Amino acid sequence: MSDEERRDSLADQAAAWIPPWQRPAPTTPTEQPQPESEPVADLGSEGPLEGPPSSTISTVAEAKPQPAADLGMESPQKGPDGTKIPEQSGGAEAGEEDEAGVPTKRGRRRATAAPEPAPLLDDAELRGALEAILLVVDQPVSELTLAQVLEQPPERIGPMLDDIAAGYTAAGHGFELRRAAGGWRLYTRPEYASYVERFVLDGQSVRLTQAALETLAVVAYKQPVTRSRISAIRGVNCDGVLRTLVSRGLVEECGTEPDSGAFLYRTTTMFLEKLGLNSVDDLPPLAPFLPDDVEELADATR
């Protein structure tokens, strides 16, 4: 074969070459079309157009999807320097990072600056502020509350209050600062009680009756205690007296007894405040004033 015939043969082969994605799908022997039978239309899809075999082949080739048209195989976008551009989705959440490890700007929050701490007061100013607050309170105030109001460390409040109380005592003032009901409050000194009583009462007696004082003492030393137990210790019915103490805020209910379901009573914070006590543990001991068989007498009267 000459060189010219070889070049013509190669040109014919190149012209007749069909790309793989345009080639018809291979048919099995069972699927060969029969010349004498009419083609059966496939349900749900259009059958091949009638015509010579060449037209059928072209129809199949045209119907075959091109690789570039596959939505799931789209090539990533590239920048001008050939680097891959990361895809951005509309549903990106805060804190996501791209492929380079850099957090995205979407949803980033600026860190809020911490509030500046309050300046520390010197001892003289802290002492004056505490004295001013203690003069206007109508009930004992705790060290934590004072620290929050003055914006000072709580560990500075307790020692300063102790120093103020010691200064009042050493100076011999007519009032004193002491703990009461879990807090601090100014009180008049006992040696001046007669003058204060004369000024406040102005001839009007607001003292509790003897029965109320006895009932209050039983509740204070036996709390929590039921009404029947109080009546048994006193030997008389104390329903009316107990209601009076509750109405004055000196006694309150604190639940029920598990066995009988009777109401339990205890003293209130006002009781501690009126007596100037920090807790019921500061009550004077009762044993020296009671007979030895007081429990037996109480059980016998029930």
From TrEMBL:
Compositional bias segments (type: Basic and acidic residues): 1-10
Region span, Disordered: 1-120
Keywords in alphabetical order: Cell cycle, Cell division, Chromosome partition, Cytoplasm
InterPro entries in the record: ScpB_csome_segregation, WH-like_DNA-bd_sf, WH_DNA-bd_sf
Domain of life (superkingdom): Bacteria
SUPFAM superfamilies cross-referenced by the UniProt entry: Winged helix' DNA-binding domain (SSF46785)
GO annotation terms (biological process): cell division; chromosome separation
Pfam family of the protein (one): SMC_ScpB
Signal peptide residue numbers: none
Biased composition (Low complexity): 28-38
NCBIfam families assigned to the protein according to its UniProt record, in alphabetical order: SMC-Scp complex subunit ScpB (TIGR00281)
Name listed for the protein in its UniProt record: Segregation and condensation protein B
Highest classification ranks of the organism: Bacteria, Bacillati, Actinomycetota, Actinomycetes, Micromonosporales
